[in-house]
């Protein structure tokens, strides 16, 4: 066999594929052949690297050189320079915003430097479609240990001791859940995996399923042994075709290798795992609703107790864990509870994966120790806010969560501390917002979502969220009344206390937190008819600040209505009658000269002129 | 109720009584005593529904139904029969009739059936019936296969719906009835599941299906403007299809590709960091 001198890992996650990594891979293979390098340099398509916004991403080992935005057009130059002449190409390396120098080594890039990879330990390192590569990274060692050396009681004890809490959102201790189910009587039990990642702005589970599908299976095998389950389902969103494909391949391979099916590893333990495709209902992230959905029914939650640990899927004892929870389990079994607890805080142990998106410079998937302050995540890992903008809030927990403002950024990321701010850790969506986002509109966005996704079982959720949404629409469209804020708060508390499942109990959170931290914005909308972010078009007027305007003509050239006039190097002017408030000029202006005023600012001025 | 009705029966008394019962209700009724006569009338006139006997001398009702389905499939057909359980009625059902009238029928029943049939025909566009039946009959075997293989699978309904939607692109009412029968569950339950999950659609999709992500990350990056622009460009609303059937427009909650926000998916191609200004260029690629 020839000596391999380099391994090229090209990201094959959904994001990078969308930006062209498959074409880049083909070009790369072709180009290496051309230079007769195909024998000494391997090309692997990995799962999601995490730094999605910079995709397609390519990492060259053993040097750990990180290349970003690699398209098929760049390949000839890259191969020629890096692999033929041995000169890494600075042009394609990551550059910190506002600094010119390139950062060649992956782990020195700030985005990666602060991360600790546990659940994502294999991301970007293995070909997710090859079980051999997973096994080479100690894959299925934990399952073997659990099946051969540990009793169900041992496993439950380790899990309880580790303090691992469900990563799906609620944060219920995993070991405890398993203990309940292990104690339930029954010859048929089910182990389920929740891959119905429904929070908008969250893609942690998708990445795990795409990058490391076997870790999910291994976690499920260990859990099945602990509770005595012999059948399992992985419930995945149909909107994640790549995850579905890779999980199915993983299941087939594991069956072939005797790691699933009958008499696993000769221990007499049986476990069959099947994929079940969700059909797009947010409420199916709730465990009882998810089970109804697998039964082929409308996914509506049912009251607990009885808890699924006693009566779950088809009335049999069932445990449901989230994808990321499963991804943590094999390492806990291998390294022990103390190792896991060594990171995080007393009540929130280990690491947590977040999907960092929105107005930050570095967008992508990150894994950090629990207890890390929000500020570190947003400003160090995320690289801060895009140039010229100001941080306004970070949204955690999706439609069930809330918006946390600047002065709470020191809050450590733990289940309790985040809860105290009014948001929740949730499944890990973290959307950063800047001063161009209107918080009232954000609240309206989430209520839009929850009214749509409410399953309709409980009237407080079905009707209450609709009433709240209507009030928010009123406020954002200029029909808000002073008493609306109080009404919203009242309704929110009623909905929280009278809804059956997590959806209704948390749906008002986005409204409550925005009122709590951004009450002033609500008041500006209602009293002054002014959306300072210029998002609520019925409450804003765009105008050009003559002193700030440099007369660069960029706004006039990009205005779709030709509403902007002005000579070069002289202040421009927006004709309000033509303006459709599309924000193009506001976003394009490099000098911040386009300002947002209250909706009636010119009405007043006109009157003054007439006087 | 207004509507043009053609009654075809070899017994003059039936024609007469239909006329007597339906005309006062507002229908415009014509009668034909043979299939041949009916064809002549149909070629020259515009009828919403045809009420026809099955057993007639020379050409029978089934021949007439086949002929109508070829000539003008939008015409609604109601069958008069003395033996609703016989093979002939099965053939007629298979050809896509709306309803049948068991002989002898009361005036109230005739009015009821005729009114329902007319409003059914009027509520459905000509095209829709045509495509639906065309789509379904063309893929009938595949659909049957899916139902058969999942018949005994617990919780099999959702996978069946997913697979059939994959085949047809949508789930027309006729198929829901087929599935209900095949899996032995009430149609109401099938419909309940279809309407509950946003993944399922009962409307046909265009040649290219455009999905705009409205997840939080995309929202923050103004995907709503992209949606507005697309609606404007295509002249359709969400869940609608353009007249030339080239494009249909949908919104999705989150595609989990937040790093690329704002995201638009056309068929299976993911377009990331979409600029609202350049949406028309993106669409043109598919035109």
Structure description:
The complex is a heterodimer of chains A (611) and B (287). Chain A has 24 helices and 20 strands. Chain A has 611 residues and is α/β, with parallel strands linked by helices. In chain A, the strands form 6 sheets. A 5-stranded mixed sheet of chain A has the order 9-10-8-7-11, with helices on both faces. The longest helix of chain A is centred in the last third of the chain and has 20 residues, at 509-528. Chain A is globular. The model of chain A is unreliable at 607-611 (pLDDT under 50). Chain B folds into 3 domains: 3-123, Rossmann fold (3-Layer(aba) Sandwich); 131-196; 208-284, Glutaredoxin (3-Layer(aba) Sandwich). Chain B has helices at residues 12-22, 35-44, 61-71, 87-95, 107-123, 126-138, 140-149, 157-168, 173-183, 187-196, 216-220, 223-234, 279-284; strands at 3-8, 27-32, 49-53, 76-81, 99-102, 208-213, 240-241, 247-252, 264-266, 269-271. The model of chain B has no long low-confidence stretch (mean pLDDT 85). At the A-B interface, helix 1, strand 10, strand 12, strand 16 and helix 17 of A face helix 8, helix 10, helix 11 and strand 10 of B.
DSSP strand content of chain B: 15-25%
| Secondary-structure element order of chain B, N to C | EHEHEHEHEHHHHHHEHHEEEEH
Fraction of residues in helix of chain B: 40-55%
The name of the CATH topology of the largest domain in chain B is Rossmann fold
Radius of gyration of CA atoms of chain A, rounded to a whole number: 27 Å
Q: Supply the CATH superfamily name of the largest domain in chain A.
A: NADH-ubiquinone oxidoreductase 51kDa subunit
CATH level-1 class of the largest domain in chain A: Alpha Beta
CATH superfamily of the largest domain in chain B: Response regulator
Biggest sheet layout of chain B? 5 strands, parallel
CATH architecture of the largest domain in chain A: 3-Layer(aba) Sandwich
Question: How many individual β-strands of chain B?
Answer: 10
Shape of chain B: elongated
| Helical fraction of chain A | 25-40%
Oligomer: heterodimer
């Amino acid at each position: 066999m020839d000596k391999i001198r380099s391994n090229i890992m090209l990201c094959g996650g959904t994001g990078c594929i969308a930006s062209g990594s498959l074409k880049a891979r083909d070009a790369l293979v072709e180009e290496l052949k051309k230079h007769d390098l195909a024998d000494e340099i391997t090309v692997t398509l990995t799962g999601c690297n995490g730094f999605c916004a910079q995709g397609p991403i390519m990492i060259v080992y053993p040097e750990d050189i990180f290349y970003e935005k690699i398209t098929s057009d760049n390949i000839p130059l890259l191969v020629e320079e890096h692999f033929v002449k041995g000169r890494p190409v600075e042009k394609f390396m990551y550059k910190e915003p506002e600094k010119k120098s390139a950062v060649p080594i992956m782990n020195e890039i700030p985005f990666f430097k602060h991360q600790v990879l546990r659940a994502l330990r294999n991301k970007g390192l293995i070909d997710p479609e090859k079980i051999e590569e997973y096994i080479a990274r100690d894959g299925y060692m934990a399952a073997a240990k659990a099946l051969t050396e540990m009793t169900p009681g041992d496993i439950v004890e380790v899990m309880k001791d580790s303090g691992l809490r469900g990563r799906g959102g609620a944060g219920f201790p995993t070991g405890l859940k398993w203990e309940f189910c292990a104690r339930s009587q029954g010859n048929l039990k089910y182990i389920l995996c929740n891959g119905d990642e429904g929070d908008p702005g969250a893609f942690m589970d998708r990445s795990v399923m795409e990058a490391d599908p076997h870790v999910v299976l291994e976690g499920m095998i260990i859990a099945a042994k602990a509770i005595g389950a012999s059948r399992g389902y992985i419930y995945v969103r149909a909107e994640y075709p790549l995850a579905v494909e890779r999980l199915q391949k993983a299941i087939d391979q594991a069956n072939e290798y005797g790691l699933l099916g009958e008499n696993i590893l000769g221990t007499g333990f049986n476990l069959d795992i099947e994929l079940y495709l969700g059909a797009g209902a947010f409420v199916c992230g709730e465990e009882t609703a998810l089970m109804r959905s697998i039964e082929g029914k409308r996914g509506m939650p049912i009251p607990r107790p009885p808890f699924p640990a006693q009566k779950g899927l088809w009335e049999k004892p069932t445990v449901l864990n989230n994808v990321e929870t499963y991804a943590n389990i094999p390492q806990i079994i291998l390294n022990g509870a103390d190792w896991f607890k060594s990171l995080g805080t007393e009540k929130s142990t280990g690491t947590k994966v977040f999907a960092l998106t929105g107005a930050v410079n570095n967008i992508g998937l990150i894994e950090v120790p629990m207890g890390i302050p929000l500020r570190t995540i947003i400003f160090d890992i995320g690289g801060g806010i895009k140039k010229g903008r100001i941080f306004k809030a970070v949204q955690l927990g999706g439609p069930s969560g809330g918006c946390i403002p600047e002065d709470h950024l020191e809050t450590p990321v733990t289940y309790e501390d985040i809860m105290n701010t009014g948001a929740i850790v949730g499944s890990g969506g973290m959307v950063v917002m800047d001063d161009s986002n209107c918080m009232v509109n954000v609240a309206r966005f989430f209520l839009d979502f929850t009214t749509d996704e409410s399953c309709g079982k409980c009237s407080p959720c079905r009707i209450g969220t609709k009433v709240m949404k209507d009030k928010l629409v009123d406020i954002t469209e200029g029909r808000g009344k002073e008493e609306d804020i109080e009404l919203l708060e009242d309704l929110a508390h009623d909905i929280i206390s009278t809804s059956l499942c997590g959806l209704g109990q948390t749906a008002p959170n986005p409204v409550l937190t925005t009122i709590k931290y951004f009450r002033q914005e609500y008041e500006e909308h209602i009293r002054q008819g002014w959306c300072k972010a210029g998002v609520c078009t019925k409450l804003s007027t765009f105008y050009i600040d003559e002193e700030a305007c440099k007369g660069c003509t960029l706004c006039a050239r990009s205005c779709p209505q030709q509403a902007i006039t002005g000579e070069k190097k002289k202040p421009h002017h927006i004709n309000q009658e033509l303006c459709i408030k599309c924000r193009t000029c506001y976003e394009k202006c490099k000098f911040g000269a386009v300002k947002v005023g209250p909706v009636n600012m010119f009405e007043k001025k006109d009157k003054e002129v007439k006087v | 109720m207004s509507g043009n009705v053609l009654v075809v029966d070899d017994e003059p008394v039936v024609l007469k009584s239909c006329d007597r019962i339906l005309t006062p209700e507002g229908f415009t009724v014509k009668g034909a005593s043979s299939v041949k006569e009916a064809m002549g009338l149909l070629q020259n006139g515009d009828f919403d529904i045809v009420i026809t006997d099955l057993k007639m001398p020379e050409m029978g009702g089934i021949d007439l139904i086949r002929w109508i389905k070829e000539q003008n499939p939008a015409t609604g057909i109601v069958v008069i029969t003395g033996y609703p359980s016989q093979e002939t009625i099965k053939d007629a059902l298979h050809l896509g009739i709306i309803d049948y009238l068991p002989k002898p029928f009361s005036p109230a029943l005739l009015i009821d059936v005729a009114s329902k049939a007319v409003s059914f025909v009027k509520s459905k566009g000509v095209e829709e019936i045509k495509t639906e039946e065309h789509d379904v009959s063309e893929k009938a075997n595949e659909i049957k296969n899916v139902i058969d293989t999942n018949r005994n699978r617990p919780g099999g309904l959702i996978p069946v719906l997913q697979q059939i939607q994959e085949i047809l692109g949508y789930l027309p009412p006729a198929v829901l009835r087929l599935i209900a029968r095949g899996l032995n569950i009430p149609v109401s339950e099938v419909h309940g599941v279809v309407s509950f999950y946003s993944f399922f659609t009962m409307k046909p999709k265009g040649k290219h299906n455009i999905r705009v992500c409205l997840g939080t990350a995309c929202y923050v990056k103004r995907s709503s403007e992209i949606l507005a622009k697309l609606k404007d460009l295509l002249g359709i609303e969400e869940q609608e299809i353009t007249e030339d059937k080239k494009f249909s427009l949908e919104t999705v909650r989150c595609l989990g590709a937040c790093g690329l926000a704002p995201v638009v998916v056309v068929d299976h191609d993911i377009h990331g960091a979409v600029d609202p200004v350049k949406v028309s260029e993106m669409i043109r690629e598919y035109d």
